[in-house]
Amino acid sequence: MNKNEKDNLSAKIQINWYPGHMTKAKRMMQEDIKLIDLVIEILDARVPLSSRNPDIDTLANNKSRIIILNKYDLADEKVTSGWVNYFKNKGFYVVTINSRSGQGVKNINNIVKEACQKKIERDRARGIKNRPVRAMVVGIPNVGKSTFINSYAKKACTKTGNKPGVTKGKQWIKLSQTLELLDTPGILWPKFENMEVGLRLAFIGSIKDEIINTEELAIELIKFLKSNYPGAIGERFGIDENIDNILMLDEIAKTRKLLLKGNELNVEKAAAVLIDEFRSGQLGRISLERVENEQ
Known about the structure:
six-stranded mixed β-sheet; 12 helices; alpha/beta; 6 strands; 41% helix; elongated; 11% strand
C-alpha cells in the first residue's frame, strides 16, 4: 500500500477503538501484575505484531513471558515460522496453537515450567512448597483468549464469542495445584500511529464491525489479497480477479445470489460475506503481515 492509498484509507476509515471500560481494565491489570509470576500473551497468528498491545511490554516488565500465536490454522504456515523465530530471538517463549481444536495446547504446560523454572527454584530454596505459578492471560479483543483458557482448562471457565469485548472483568481460574490463571478483559491501546495496524485489526474482527464501513473494508481486503494471495478470491467465488476492485463485490453478489428487492445486487452483504469467509479461513491460510516487512 503506497502513501496516497494509506492517506485515502485514513480519511475513509476512522476507527474510534478505545471505549471507556478499557481504561478501567488497564488500571486493574496494573494493580494485579504484582501478584503475577508469568504473563501469557495471546496473539493472532495472522497479525502477530498488529495484535500486540504495546502497553503489555511495559506492564509485564521483569516478568516471565510466553507468546501464544493462536489461530495458527488460519495463518500462512511459512510466514508463521518466521514469526516464531522472530519472537524467540527477542527472548520470548513461543507456542503456536489452534485453541478451538486444542491443537498445540498440550505443549504449554512444559513451556510454563521452563519459563518459571527460576521462580520455582527460588521458592524451593526458601522452603516454600506447592505454591502455584500465577499467570496473567492478556490479549486484545477477539484473538481467542477465552477460547484458549477453556481449551487449556478442558472446561468452559469463561464466556466466549466471535466478537470483541466478551470478557468484561477479571477472573481467577485454578487449573491445577501448580498453576492458576488470571483472565483479563481484552484491551486495545488509545492511539495507533500506523493506519495499517487498525486496518489489519479490522480485518480480523478485533474492532467492532458496527463502527466500520463494511464495503470500504472489503475493498481494502481485496487489494491486499490480489497483491499477496492472487487467486484466493477468484478460486473461492469463481470470479475473474482482473477487474476493478469495486466490481469484484458486484461479482461476488452475483455468484452468491445476494439480491435486494428489484433484483438489485446486495453489495453490502457481498462485502460482509467476503470478510467473514476470510476470517473463517475459507479463502485459505492467509497472513496479513510478514517478518521481513516489520523489522
